[in-house]
Here is the input.
Amino acid sequence: MASVAEIIDAVKNLSEEDKGVFFERLAEIDFDDAWDRQIEADVRAGRLDDMIARADADIASRRTKPLDEVLDNS
Here is the structure.
């Protein structure tokens, strides 16, 4: 198996067309599952407990804004 450095060097040497194909194929890889598993493991291990407690306290103290207000860029 090639190292990350070897893969990067190989990608640098691809034609522009092949780079496009490579990046399209890379985008098809489902990284979401790994991310979801990591978040679930962090929650189970208690690594997000402080953040969740702060969010709950902010909600209880009404120190939050509706999401549509936050996302309004006008």
Q: What stands out?
A: The mean pLDDT is 91. Residues 1-30 form one domain.
